[in-house]
Amino acid sequence: MDLSPVINQIIGALWYLVPLFLIAATLKSPWFKGVMGEFQVNLMIKLRLPKDQYHLIKDVTLPTEDGTTQIDHVIISRFGVFVLETKNMKGWIFGSPNQNQWTQQIYKHRNKFQNPIRQNYKHTKTLEAALGINPNYVFSVIVFIGDSKFKTAMPDYVTYAGGCVSYIKSKQAPVFTDSEVNAIIDGIESGKLKRGFKTNREHVAHVKQVIAKKRIVEPVTVAKKEVVENRTGQQCTKCGATMVLRDSKKGKYAGNKFWGCSTFPKCRNVVNL
After folding, report:
1. Cα–Cα distances in Å, from 8 out to 5, 11, 44?
2. Which of 253, 192, 176 is nearest to 69 (CA)?
3. In sequence order, which residues have a C-beta less than 8 Å from that of residue 80 and are 6 or more positions away?
4. How many domains is the chain built from?
5. 91 touches 103 (CB < 8 A)
6. Which long-range contacts (CB under 8 A, 24 or more apart) does 227-234 make?
7. CA-CA-CA-CA dihedral for 9, 13, 19, 22, to nearest 10
8. pLDDT, tens digit (0-9, with 9 covering 90-100), for 140-194
9. Between 20 and 30 A from 153 (CA), which of 18, 37, 142, 181?
10. pTM exceeding 0.70
11. What is the largest CA-CA distance in the chain?
């Protein structure tokens, strides 16, 4: 019996599902979440901040001594320059200004991510140096988009979407003249790198180099305990997610600690101590 016609029909039917899988994968990707987060912030700013008082510049990539730095949004006004870093995340968010990494928790799953306050610090300092602005007039704003909830106390400039506009409007003391505002806008527009694939590719390459440097770890000694390798910020060698310290619950290794991928059970990569 020739099954070729049946197989061809099955393959033909499955072929139509390929675009659906690609669309689903794109919607779940960090890139798409970042784009959607920035879009929501753009819309919020345009609807809630008067255009005659606040000027928005999006996706600003500036050259630095060691590569580039990429800023999601810069808002220029007579009341100061506001540098926005957007995070499109869900779940519980734990963190403090002094920590290198913050924690995102969704049910029992935890994931580490770079402290956005420190991330945005480089952005603000780059702008200050490039434009010669008084640091007191440059404000860092961290905006969380999505179904997230802060579980630790946050500074007033770390906000949810709506709080971003409220924080910006809270600065009502004029610090720049109209001519100075125009000069800052011209300085950013002329100094930023041209948008495009090449700029994004070079920035991504620089970020990867920074991450690779942070992977270098040294052993640390814990009082009355064994020497444990400090892998804070270490990425999984299989999927790139953060490695977290866990305890073996069963088997002959019960009670021992090991480093496991934070995406378990999706990724089961482990590093024994």
Report:
1. 5, 5, 50
2. 192
3. 137, 138, 139, 171, 175, 176
4. 2
5. no
6. 228/257, 228/273, 229/259, 229/273, 231/259, 231/271, 232/100, 232/101, 232/112, 233/100, 233/101, 233/112, 234/259
7. -100
8. 999 998 889 999 999 999 998 878 899 999 999 999 999 999 999 998 888 776 5
9. 37
10. no
11. 85
Indicate whether 25 belongs to any domain. no
Give the integer Cα–Cα distance in Å for 4 and 111.
48
Cβ neighbours for 191, distance < 8 A, ≥ 6 positions apart: 62, 130, 131
What residue type is assigned to position 240 of the chain? G
- Token couple for 79: 């009341």
81-84: long-range contacts at Cβ-Cβ below 8 A with a sequence spacing of 24 or more? 81/127, 81/133, 81/137, 81/138, 81/139, 81/184, 82/139, 82/141, 82/168, 83/120, 83/123, 83/124, 83/127, 83/138, 83/139, 83/140, 83/141, 84/41, 84/141, 84/142, 84/143, 84/164
Same domain? 149 vs 265: no
Among residues 213, 240, 261, which one ends one of the domains? 213
Whole-number Cα distances in Å, 105 to 87, 146, 207, 268: 15, 14, 24, 19
What are the tens digits of pLDDT across the range 56-67?
998 888 877 767
Domain hosting residue 263, numbered range: 218-273
Strands 67-77 and 270-272 come out as unpaired
Q: Does one domain contain both 78 and 110?
A: yes
